[in-house]
Amino acid sequence: MRNDEALRDPVAAGLRLSTAGAAPDAGAGSMPRALVRLFAVACGLSVANVYYAQPLLDALALDFDLGHAAVGIVITATQIGCALALLFVVPLGDLVRRRRLMTVQLVLLALALMAVGLAPAQPVLLAGMVAVGLLGTAMAQGLIAYAATLATPAERGRVVGAAQGGVMVGLLLARVLAGAVADLAGWRAVYVGSAVAALALLVALRRALPEQVPETRLPYLRLLGSMFTLLARERVLQVRGVIAMLMFAAFSVFWSAMVLPLSAPPSSLSHTAIGAFGLVGIVGVLAAARAGRWADRGLGQRTTGLALLLLLASWLPLAAGPSALWLLVAGIVALDLAAQAIHVTNQSMILGAQPEAHARLVGCYMMFYAVGSGIGAIASTSVYAAFGWTGVCLLGAGLSLAALLFWMAARWAHAHRRQGARCTVEALCRHNTPAMKQD
Q1: Could you say which of 192, 217, 242 is where a domain stops?
Q2: How far is it, in rounded angstroms, from Cα 343 to Cα 123?
Q3: Same domain (yes/no): 213, 306
Q4: If you ran DSSP here, which 8-state letter would residue 269 be given?
Q5: Domain span including residue 330
Q6: DSSP readout, 75-108?
Q7: 358 Cβ contact list (under 8 Å, min separation 6)
Q8: 182 and 227 share a domain?
Q9: What pLDDT was estimated at residue 354?
Q10: Are residues 285 and 307 part of one domain?
């Protein structure tokens, strides 16, 4: 029966099969708090590997003879790895025993981190960065899915929220940790130390996580194909994905280029000081915590519009930031608040479109994120080399404006379609009313 259904509609069948029998019964015992914390820490440590390079770009440029226009390729390489993970690795969680998959991924992640830390030349560095982006992303997203599957329905929101919180904290603190370690022991120590941490995490996860037997019967290639079908069918995913791509491109423009003017005279800040600006972003993330609740109340569009306006306005204080650090701090808070509010609202609206497809919807949505972040990284350093910090801020503001205009156009198109449908229904009613009276 299931095989016949899969042949007729592989997308719907795959979604049902990937979730069938995976969740514990509602009456099962709740997840221990220690395990919840382990999931959060593991997610943070995994995703941090993808972002360590951002405050280290000047050191990498010096060691590998990369100009300011070219060094952004390092960040782009990690984002390429992110995209590959979302497309080809994350879906494996539906087909392979999760604990075994985590073991293989962590061993490979440790090897990739060592390769970056010991890289003698640019090709090895870039290949290692692709692998780090791929495996770090696959681990973080896989752990979130793992946590959701192990949790009972009554606690799933709390558990997944803790894991997602670990991702955000890891993303923000990665810059601080990388900058501090680089100042003490050089940038290579960041990656060698993280390789050791990955192996320690492997031991902890192997001891704490129970084994899971996958329920999915779909072939791997058909499972991958279902993601592209979702991209083609889900208009909410399409619209929110483009908004996310533009927003994350603007976000990456700032964070990828920020180190370049701050490390140069007259600021000449250390890696530790530059990385500490990541702590400022936590304020914005915490302030955006209510965005998901507003979306649940039907205020997602209003939240998006206000957040996009704030994203655009944040570039004004950021433009003056290198010469006035308090303006830079204010701009970072506004930028991170806007970006997180948009991100949370996007996810809330996408996951409400087709609840049974959560895992693949998130994977598809995060592909837009990876593309936007990669484009923003390479564009920002190229623009900085040609036009300086003013050019970077104009680029970020232009991307923010493009996101706002796209959202407005999508809103107009949606309202136009609704009006057209309403007129069609009214015309049909008027046409059928006389015939009904005659009958």
Answers
A1: 217
A2: 33
A3: no
A4: -
A5: 218-412
A6: HHHHHHHHHHIIIIIGGGGGTS-HHHHHHHHHHH
A7: 351
A8: no
A9: 60
A10: yes
- Rounded Cα distance between 293 and 116, Å, is 41
Total Cβ atoms within 10 A of residue 299? 14
Phi, psi of 3 (to 5 degrees): -65, -40
Question: For residue 53, what are its two tokens?
Answer: 């390079």
The two three-digit tokens of residue 166, written as one number: 């670990």
Tokens of 99: 């604990």
CA distances (Å), 378 to each of 78, 84, 395, in order?
11, 18, 12
* Averaged pLDDT in 10-residue chunks for the chain of 439 residues: 38 37 48 90 94 89 85 87 88 81 95 97 95 95 79 67 76 86 94 97 92 72 86 91 95 88 82 77 70 70 94 95 85 89 79 62 83 88 92 96 96 77 64 49
- Here the CATH number for the domain that contains residue 182 is 1.20.1250.20
**What is the count of structural domains for the chain?**
2
Task: Identify whether residues 232 and 99 lie together within a single domain.
Answer: no
DSSP-assigned letter for residue 155: T
- The Cα 248–Cα 372 span in angstroms is 5
| Tokens matching residue 41 | 């820490």
DSSP code, position 68: T
Do the domain assignments include residue 10?
no
Residue with tokens 């960041």: 190
Rounded Cα distance between 177 and 174, Å, is 5
* pTM tops 0.85: no
Is residue 124 assigned to a domain? yes
Same-domain check for residues 186 and 228:
no
**253 Cα distance to chain centroid:** 15
Do 102 and 142 form a contact (C-beta atoms < 8 A)? yes
Give the whole-angstrom CA distance, residue 251 versus residue 261.
Answer: 17
Residue 398 included in any domain: yes
The three-state secondary structure class of 24 is coil
Is the same domain home to 268 and 325?
Answer: yes
User: Degrees (nearest 5) of the Cα angle 116, 51, 334?
Assistant: 160
Q: Please tell me the distance from the alpha carbon of residue 110 to that of residue 199, in angstroms, as a whole number.
A: 7
Type of residue found at 50: V
Q: Is 131 in the same domain as 245?
A: no
One domain for residues 211 and 239: no
Helical axes 156-185 vs 271-287, angle rounded to 10°: 160
- The predicted pLDDT at position 4 comes to 36
| SS percent in the chain: helix, strand, coil, step 5 | 85, 0, 15
